[in-house]
Amino acid sequence: MRGTLLRYSMRRALANMSENRLVHLIGIGTMAIAFLIFDAFLLVFLNINYWIEEQGSSLTMSIYFTGDPDKAAVETVSKELLQYPGVTINEFISKSDAMENLKRRLGDKAGLLDGLEGNPLPASLEITLSKGKIEDFPKQLKARLEMLEAVDEVQYSHEWVEKIQAVMGAVKLIGIIFGGLLFLAALFIIINTIKLAIYSRHDEVEILKLVGATNRFVKAPFLIEGSIQGFLGGVTAIVILLLGYLVAITRIDLRIGFASFDIVFLSPQFILLLLLMSIIVGFLGSMISLSRFFRI
Amino acid sequence: MIQFFHVYKSFGSENPALIDVSLTIEKGEFVFVTGPSGAGKTTLLKIIFCAERPTSGYVLVNGRNLTRIKDKELSLLRRRTGMVFQDFKLLPNRTVFENVALALEIMGAPFSVIRKRVHQTLKYLDLGGKEDYRPPQLSGGEQQRVAIARAIINSPLILLADEPTGNLDQDLTVEIMALLKRIHIRGTTVIVATHNQELLKGTRRRVVTLNKGRVA
After folding, report:
1. Cys staple from B35: which of A80, A150, B110, B210, with CB 3.0 to 4.6 Å?
2. What's the total number of domains in chain A?
3. A220 and A289 housed in the same domain
């Protein structure tokens, strides 16, 4: 019985969708837009999160010197640093090295620097702190180093990662509210599409009930229709997002010339989860719509 | 088989459709329900079919009290009661085969059984070869026969026909009445609501006359 019902419902759902193509296409299109906004938001959110995690796992620190330090000043700082385990000195960048680096990065716009009087860039010592260090350690080290006469300022990558992390809390909250609203919008769309489908097939529903069909039998094709619409809306959204992503990364690579920030696409697990969510939204929307209709 | 006990039915406060109707229809009977338009014929059939519930009084069909029937039992009751409507109530975008098969599909019958029974029933009603037609491609008489095929395919115990010849000309009326008689001979209880007095001329069947909601 259950197999027959499923086969019948599937056949009816597909036949109905093909008979009322335009209504269903509009429904799928509108749902795809709602899902696309949701998916795009998720993609941006996940990328920022991924990037923060990436930054947090390798902690680098730059120690900027006052003026042009002599060898002794650099050695004093190096000796201080070597007292702490887990600290690796990567390189010393002199004022002139810093200027060369900047010129190289500016490429054909390096001429802009010609107007400068002297070299305003500080000399620095680049170090890496091993992972697993206690959280306060970079802060303590920064304070201690800044007490040294030769050191002007100390900056570490975590400093602004921490700041972004603080902002991410707010972004998360906005994301939940925004995502929730989009979820409701998609639900609202499917409720109305299915409602239209029920109204347009009012006679069919009436005849089915008159020949003795159970509510389950009458409802099943509509539920399948809603789920298929949700799924197709979800797939369309993912495909558009993927195309947009491919265009975006190509453009960014062309303009900047090097990948300073890798944008990653949604993982297959995430895509599956989103498609499942689209199906659930479609199913749920149909169910709400049908419950209103069958309350009579 | 069907018993009405002091049944009243009203839609709103005015114009009661049925007033104190009490009657019994035995198993295997062929009964005409007649009366002018608005006499309550359709309401009487609808109550037997559970498309309407009495305002008061009670109705027994095969011992089941219809006034207390639950929604879940409704579908089972309708599968055992065939109903033929004046406007046929066929799905215009589905074929004759699909329209008739509907009554078996809702019961979850396997396709092999559906195919065999639909072909047998269509042949019995002289509709063999019309399986792939859609209702708008058929004549009024053929459409009514398709509606009858759908109503009898489950071998119901009761067949209700509401003005089955209302939209048909004289020749087709005779044809449909002959068909209903054939179904009756097989043992089905048949109740035909009609305002067509021509149908009742010379009949030896029982005639229940309704007038302004009362059994005359």
Report:
1. B210
2. 2
3. yes
Helix (H, G, I), strand (E, B) or coil at B173: helix
Contact A212 B109 (CB under 8 A): no
Strand, helix or coil at A120? coil
Is A203 touching B (CB cutoff 8 A)? yes
Which residue from A177, A125, A185 is spatially nearest to A156, judged by alpha carbons? A125
Domain that holds residue A120: 59-130
Tokens 């304070």 belong to residue: A143
Q: Are A202 and B63 in contact (CB under 8 A)?
A: no
Residue type, A183: F
Beta bridge pairs of residue B193 = B33, B162
Residue B71 touches chain A, beta carbons under 8 Å: yes
Same domain, A125 and A256: no
Per-residue pLDDT of chain A (296 residues; tens, 9 = 90+): 566 778 888 888 888 888 888 888 888 998 898 889 888 888 888 887 777 766 666 677 888 998 888 888 888 888 888 888 778 888 888 888 888 888 888 777 777 777 777 888 888 988 887 755 556 677 778 888 888 888 888 887 666 666 766 777 787 788 788 878 877 887 887 788 778 878 888 888 889 888 888 888 889 999 999 999 999 999 999 999 999 998 888 776 655 544 455 778 888 998 999 999 999 989 998 898 888 777 53
The count of structural domains within chain B is 1
Residues A66 and A51 in one domain: no
Give the range of the structural domain holding residue B175, as residue numbers without chain letter: 2-215
CB contact under 8 A, B103 and A212: yes
CATH number of the domain encompassing residue B72:
3.40.50.300
Is the ipTM value over 0.90, yes or no?
A: no
Model pTM? 0.69
